[in-house]
Q: What sequence folds into this?
């Protein structure tokens, strides 16, 4: 299991939290958004999912991984 | 037809726009959110819908009409 904290731009409200955490859940990863710090704590099985897939899932929702 | 521009707090992103405009549509009103100015331009038939109902629809989504 890989754990990482990403800096993500553009997250502003609880709708954003839900869209990001939901998108990560859909690909089998877990995400915890911290709005105050503009971060997403992600955990995923690196044998199943690539970091690129995690990043893409967030960026497809309209946010930028810094 | 009544037209009014409301000051609304807490609107931050396109999800917010959709939730407010959608909620107004559901009660038969029209809303146009201006994120930059924190306003919602509403239009509704005052014979069908009260101002209170319009205000409630917005506040039920978690925003405050000032």
A:
């Amino acid at each position: 299991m890989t754990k990482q904290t990403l800096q993500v731009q553009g997250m502003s409200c609880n709708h954003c939290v839900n869209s990001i955490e939901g998108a990560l859940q859909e690909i089998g990863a877990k995400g915890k958004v911290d709005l105050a710090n503009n971060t997403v704590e992600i955990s995923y099985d690196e044998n199943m999912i690539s970091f690129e897939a995690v990043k893409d899932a967030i960026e497809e929702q309209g946010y930028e991984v810094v």
Chain A touches chain B at residues 10, 12-16, 19, 62 (CB under 8 Å). The domain at 2-65 of chain A is CATH 3.30.70.100 (Alpha-Beta Plaits). Residues 14-26 of chain A form the longest helix (13 residues).
